[in-house]
Design brief:
Number of strands: 9
CATH class of the largest domain: Alpha Beta
Mean pLDDT: 94
Largest sheet: 5 strands, antiparallel
Radius of gyration: 20 Å
Structural class: alpha+beta
CATH topology of the largest domain: Aminoglycoside 3'-phosphotransferase, Chain: A, domain 2
Number of domains: 2
CATH superfamily of the largest domain: Aminoglycoside phosphotransferase (APH), C-terminal lobe
Strand content: 5-15%
């Protein structure tokens, strides 16, 4: 989350006139993240988040807001989109598509425990199970084609060693067939700062704007690469085992998924590294943004590569 497009209090009041959410009390920009403009929106009826979509294709937005609405009605704690007076969940603010969702209570835990990892594994599995009944679909915009084309765009800005590692990993990923694996709706970005824990220890999931249809095991790998990582960019075996145990209580892994687990860990690390390199070398004009550490993502990929070789 960031602030790319400023929204004034007057503009927020004009927007709220089309909702049954009461009067504006407070509007506060959110710095975390790098994709959309986000504001905390407090009204006389409660607390919400206003999101302006900066880069997402308008045709894809119904998938994202519809998914949150679907999950909120299927026992997944997540932001629920608010409907306008005409029943629509999307609006237009300063020329940008926008939506208002409920603000979840709580805060992220920057240093997840074993118990946290088990709990969020269960949450991710519930998202995957509930997604089976979601009747919309969206291809992954950051799949193989993106990994290869974006690597080419980054190449002039990277060192020879970086380019060689990325090219090698793209070749490795290309030779592994994932079409046999269970697929469905994935969150796509379930890092620890996208789960808010309330006072009773219940986790709520936010930021569904990387969601798409893809390999479910890949989504597990994306999350594990963040929740279970140590400061030296390696995985903590105890937290990883806890995450997978929690996930398995809701959706046990199939036997055919297990051999491709190292492949998915590497794919997830590569995608994150490429994305963070992009934010570094192709920065966007934001009034508030907190940058991400792309060097750490590279070291995590190198860890997975070395570990996979040790298993061979």
């Amino acid at each position: 989350m960031s602030v790319f497009t400023p929204v004034s209090e007057a503009e927020a009041r004009a927007l709220l006139a089309h909702y049954a959410l009461g009067e504006l009390e407070r509007l506060e920009g959110i710095a975390q993240g790098v994709e959309n403009t986000n504001y905390f929106l407090t009204t006389t009826t409660g607390e919400y988040v206003l999101t302006l979509f900066e880069h997402i294709a308008p045709a894809d937005l119904p998938f994202y807001v519809g998914l949150m609405d679907h999950l909120a009605h299927h026992e997944v704690t997540c932001p629920q989109p608010m409907r306008r007076e005409n029943g629509e969940m999307l609006a237009l603010v300063n020329g940008k598509p926008a939506c208002i969702v409920t603000r979840l209570p709580g805060a992220p835990r920057p240093h997840p425990s074993v118990e946290d990892c088990k709990a969020v594994g269960e949450i991710l599995a519930r998202i995957h199970v509930a997604g089976v009944e979601y009747d919309a679909g969206l291809a992954n915009a950051r799949g193989r084609a993106w990994r290869e084309s974006f690597a080419a765009a980054l190449a002039p800005k990277l060192s020879r060693e970086e380019n060689e590692l990325i090219a090698s990993e793209n070749r490795y990923q290309a030779i592994h067939d994932d079409t046999v694996l269970p697929q469905g709706v994935i969150h796509g970005d379930l890092f620890h700062d996208n789960v808010l824990w309330d006072e009773e220890g219940r986790g709520g999931v936010i930021d569904f704007y990387f969601a798409c249809d893809d390999v479910l095991l890949y989504d597990v790998a994306i999350a594990v690469n963040d929740w279970c990582v140590r400061t030296d960019a390696s995985l903590d075996p105890e937290r990883t085992a806890a995450f997978l145990e929690g996930y398995g209580t809701e959706r046990p892994l199939e036997e055919l998924e297990r051999p491709l687990w190292p492949v998915m860990l590497r794919r997830a690390a590569l995608r994150t590294w490429l994305g963070r390199l992009g934010y570094n070398h192709f920065p966007r004009d934001s009034q508030m943004t907190i940058p991400k550490d792309h060097g750490f993502s590279r070291r995590l990929l190198e860890h997975h590569v070395a570990h996979a070789r040790a298993l061979d």
